[in-house]
Amino acid sequence: MKRLRNNRGYTIIEMLVAVLITGILASAGFEFYISMHNQTLAQEEISDMQQASRASLQEITKNLRMAGYRVGTHPAYVINGDSLMIFYSGTQPIDTILYFLADYSTDEKAAIPGFPQSNSPRKLMKQVNSGYAEMFADYIRRVSFTAVSPSSVQVVIEVQTSMPDEDYNYNNGYRTYAAAETVNLRNVSL
Predict the structure, then answer these.
(1) Residues near 127 by Cβ (< 8 Å), separated by ≥ 6?
(2) What is the pLDDT of residues 124-152, one digit of tens each?
(3) For site-directed labelling of 40, which of 81, 93, 133, 156 has its Cα 20 to 30 A away?
């Protein structure tokens, strides 16, 4: 049988070098993971923000196109600052839909972790006929309704993310997205 002549194993210096190299590689991998995780969270926030603005805009424009339907001489819509009231006849002689901005209550702010205090967003409310106003969209920076002509209205909605992005250096880390559409009212005579 053959005997091993050099069966000393590893020296302490070789072990320390191996641990150091492993630590460097592990920390680089961990930094990469953290960076990718933060980017995933930021992209999810951006996606939610864009989806909220598009869905809100689509719903408002759909209802705005019904403005003036079978209401006779009643006005089709009324714009008052950041609120829009739409009149049409669907289930009642005159149905109304009111869109307006409302502030979050103190309790709502306390219930939302990390609620932005410096640039406090608002919520877009929707009230149908004489029913209760319900929150339609949240984290709204601004909404504007502008009568471009008697038969068209421009709607602009600006939404912000619910959480700040640490890699975004503007607006205290909150990203914003604005969507706009000009709606031609079908039931308003020119």
Answers:
(1) 96, 97, 98, 100, 133, 134
(2) 999 999 899 999 899 999 999 999 988 89
(3) 156
